[in-house]
Amino acid sequence: MAYHVNYDINLLKAGNKNEFERVYFDFFDVLYALGVQYTSDRSVAESIVQDAFLKLWEMHENLLPETNIRNFLYTLTKNFCLNYLRDQKVVWKNLNKVRAYEYAYAMQSLERIGNNFMEFEELCSKVDLAIENLPEEIKIVFKLSRFEDMKYREISEKLTISEKTVEARMTRALKILRTELKDFLPIFLSFFN
Amino acid sequence: MDYQTSQKILMENASEKEKEAFYKELEEDKDAKKEFIRQKELWDLYHISQHKLSPERKKRLFQEFGRTIANKTQKTVSQRFLDAIKYAAVILLALLSGFFLHTIQNQTPAGTMRELHSEKGSISSVLLSDGSKIWLNSNTTLRIWEENRKVTAKLSGEAYFDIRHDPDREFIVDLGKIKVKDLGTKFNVSAYPGDQFYRTTLVEGDVTILSPDGEEIKELAVNQTFRFNHNDLSFQIEELDPSIVTGWTGNKFVFIDKPLAEICHEFEKWYGISIHIESEQLKQEKYTSVILRTTTVGQLLEMFKMTTGINYTFRNEKNGIVTILISK
Lengths: 193, 328
Known about the structure:
heterodimer, A: mainly alpha, 9 helices, 73% helix, 0% strand, B: 328 residues, alpha+beta, Jelly Rolls, Phage tail protein beta-alpha-beta fold, 15-stranded mixed beta sheet, 20 strands, 31% helix, 38% strand, elongated
């Protein structure tokens, strides 16, 4: 992920549509991916990201030269997702306990990722690096499951290994990653204890 | 911590039953819960980058974005009109959630009249050229004009004034049946046309309440509120905490002795939700509260439930909208 593009705040302040378009197309993907992962709902993610851009538009005349556009959009998207999850949690509390729990866990997971876009980016690149450093045969299994959303059976057919082996490699991959990445995750706040 | 089950859940291979049992277990084991959230956090990070939207859909969404902002731009036309006339004294300052502050300027025999208006559900503020600042609460109109070193502001709605001291100038807020005279001070005036009481609260400095013909009725002390009943022209002095009275300038809902129906109406406007209060009696029950506008609907309802004993449920309407039902 590389979004080290600088945006012309003065153009944005003036409501320049080309500059807005540039920001929109540079950022849409990462914000959308974030939204889908945590809300588990593509259409919700679409409207959350759209709302974040609309908020940027509403605020454009008040942007300051030092405003970090990436951070602004990231924070808005993250907060919109948190609000959505919080509301869903309440709605489902009495209807379906399992779903209510899932919204609660998604919220806690999202709360723990970077407080700003730089932190988030760093975290993602650490994760990517840790995956690249996995032993080769384990990495293949992990990547197939991650990027192509393949089930154990499909992976076992593709690699001509047994399903049991796929499962064992997947478990190992997660274990290695957990150990590798443990220093980069924030420590739990004390009120969880 | 059962890694096999947690892995199964994260991979979405677990049944409802398995999930339910697992989550129940987590509720009883804090460490296991912590460990699961850690795992889920990593899992989410591994998978974020795999969600992609087709370029066509993205393009369509951008076009939609373009149409929406075009509509918004039309609405702010009066704001640009303001830029065009370049009235140097007025600078738009804060904006909260899509507010539009309209200002109109007219030449009258008495001098220049300016009209400031803040729409429903929005809060705005203006900075005057002498450094004085005025905040307008939702649905408020303020007409200001100056003649012979005397500034008069006619208010309909609620405003907070932070007026710079100028010994050569008088500043008067005209509420029709009473006037508030100020000599460099901070005060809040709430005078919505439908309200039975108009309230003037002194936060700092000096204000005097005058009759329409300028006769002195009462000089307020700091923290005092002048509560005026404009039906029978009686008044009372209340002690209200100024931080509550002026809370709305800091992005908070402030309700002082408001019927629940009005409070819920404010929430509907702000959150874009639909609320139904089950009984007429409950609608008229009065509450006082200060709530941050960034509070989520969920937190808000829980807070009300805990402090007032009000219950809420959700009803799914045919059109897909969820109505919140409130009862006691």
